[in-house]
Amino acid sequence: MTILIVDDSRIMRNVVKNCFSLLKIPAQYLEANNGKEALLRLQSQPVNLVLLDWNMPEMSGIEFLKKVRAIDKFKTLPIIMITSEGARYSVIEALKAGATDYLVKPLTEKHLKEKVFKIISP
């Protein structure tokens, strides 16, 4: 499984990788600091799952989400928003824009496991 972790915080990207390691989910990680960089990574390598922050410089997570969903080959790519934007209207906006699921920071191993296994388990 190849996971693209998109967050402008290196610490948060490491937290996500550590959670996957603790869950014993074998994965290869690609990282991006913002949506613009993530779009380039996504178009250059196959990815099975995107974990996406909302608030980032250059291109926000929601902008990235809208651009990716407009590309046919990425319409069904699982994308989980992981963000501090926990207001109901933010969750609704992300889901309407095409997010597969939504997690509010602080991220916990338990919540990440629930979301990821819901997506990767048949």
Structure characteristics:
122 residues, alpha/beta, Rossmann fold, 5-stranded parallel β-sheet, 44% helix
- Largest beta sheet: what is the strand line-up? 2-1-3-4-5
Question: What is the string of helix and strand elements?
Answer: EHEHEHEHEH
Tell me the CATH architecture: 3-Layer(aba) Sandwich
What is the helical fraction, as a range of percent? Answer: 40-55%
Largest sheet: 5 strands, parallel
Q: In percent terms, what proportion of residues is strand? A: 15-25%
Shape descriptor: globular
- CATH class term: Alpha Beta
Question: Got a strand count?
Answer: 5
* Distinct helical segment count: 5
Spans of at least 5 consecutive residues with low confidence: none
Identify the CATH homologous superfamily.
Response regulator
The overall pLDDT, averaged over residues, is 90
CATH topology: Rossmann fold
Question: Outline of this structure?
Answer:
This protein has 122 residues and is an alpha/beta fold.
Explain what this protein looks like in three dimensions.
The chain has 122 residues and is of the alpha/beta class. The protein has one domain: Response regulator (Rossmann fold, 3-Layer(aba) Sandwich), CATH 3.40.50. It has helices spanning 10-22, 35-44, 61-69, 88-97, 109-120, and strands at 2-6, 28-32, 49-52, 79-83, 101-104. Strands 2-1-3-4-5 form a 5-stranded parallel β-sheet, with helices on both faces. Helix 2 (35-44) runs parallel beside helix 3 (61-69). The longest helix has 13 residues, at 10-22. The protein is globular, with a radius of gyration of 13 Å. The model has no long low-confidence stretch (mean pLDDT 90).
